[in-house]
């Protein structure tokens, strides 16, 4: 049974409104009626979970898991961090998935018509389980920025989509990770729907030279906090997992 203490009320000043004028897509996607809060059912908070037998050793290595004729094109990077609860405790054995555009800013998807070429050696997706201390790591290439049809000249900053699963298939949180120093972050209409700059900062992965592999890959650190006052902003469940 779910206890009242398990729930965190959504902070309306921390998260963006559903309807935001400068984010044109929100005009048709935002609800027109008052939102309803529904208690999770037993089927949503329990059920099968992912195990190590579901993960291939190359699933977290986007430099190799789709390569056919060579290495992917682009800046080689490492993305690593921890999945934590609101008290800073690690969340072990949690499935973390990522997907992204290639170094030219194009997704491997039939609906992506951006003129950047598709990289034949880059699939753009991976997954891994956190270890006993909540750690996860991926090898990949830094995604490129790409234009999108919001206003005349809007560009999405380089970003990686991140998905975190809970203790059942119906528990899933999705967010986006940006990169420290990218000037497009401050100009992105989607990012700017978030009213508090502190929340935006928590979506930006910090350059981590200590984890960088010399002559190989630059590292970025991105911790994911599931709930509490410093929770990472999630697109689908702002109140946390």
Automatic annotation (TrEMBL):
Pfam families: Dioxygenase_C, PCDO_beta_N
InterPro entries tied to this protein: Intradiol_dOase_C (IPR000627), Intradiol_dOase_core (IPR015889), Intradiol_RC_Dioxygenase (IPR050770), PCDO_beta_N (IPR024756), Protocat_dOase_b (IPR012785)
Entry-linked Gene3D superfamilies: Aromatic compound dioxygenase (2.60.130.10)
Presence of the UniProt keyword Oxidoreductase in the record: yes
Keywords, comma-separated and alphabetical: Dioxygenase, Oxidoreductase
GO BP annotations listed: 3,4-dihydroxybenzoate catabolic process
Domain Intradiol ring-cleavage dioxygenases, first and last residues per copy: 79-107
Keyword Cell inner membrane tagged: no
Chain coiled-coil ranges: none
EC number: 1.13.11.3
One Gene Ontology term of the molecular function aspect: protocatechuate 3,4-dioxygenase activity
Highest taxon above the source species: Bacteria
Similarity comment: Belongs to the intradiol ring-cleavage dioxygenase family.
Protein name: Protocatechuate 3,4-dioxygenase beta chain
Organism: Roseovarius gaetbuli
């Amino acid at each position: 049974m779910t206890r009242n203490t398990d729930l965190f009320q959504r902070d309306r000043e921390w998260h963006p409104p559903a309807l935001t004028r400068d984010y044109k897509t929100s005009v048709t996607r935002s609800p027109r009626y008052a939102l309803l809060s529904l208690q999770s059912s037993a089927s949503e908070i329990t059920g099968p979970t992912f195990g190590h037998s579901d993960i291939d050793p190359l699933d977290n290595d986007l430099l190799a898991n789709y390569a056919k004729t060579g290495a992917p094109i682009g800046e080689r990077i490492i993305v690593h961090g921890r999945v934590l609860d609101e008290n800073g405790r690690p969340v072990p054995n949690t499935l973390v998935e990522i997907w992204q555009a290639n170094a030219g800013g194009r997704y491997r998807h039939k609906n992506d018509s951006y003129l950047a070429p598709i990289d034949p050696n880059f699939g753009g997706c991976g997954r891994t389980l956190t270890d006993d201390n909540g750690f996860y790591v991926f090898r990949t290439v830094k995604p490129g920025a790409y234009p999108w049809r919001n206003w005349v000249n809007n560009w999405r900053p380089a970003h990686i989509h991140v998905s975190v699963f809970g203790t059942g298939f119906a528990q899933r949180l999705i967010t986006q990770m940006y990169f420290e120093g990218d000037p497009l972050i401050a100009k992105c209409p989607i990012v700017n729907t978030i009213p508090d700059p502190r929340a935006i900062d928590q979506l930006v992965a910090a350059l981590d030279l200590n984890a960088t592999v010399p002559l190989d890959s630059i590292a970025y650190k991105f911790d994911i906090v599931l709930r509490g006052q410093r929770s990472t902003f999630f697109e689908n469940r702002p109140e946390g997992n």
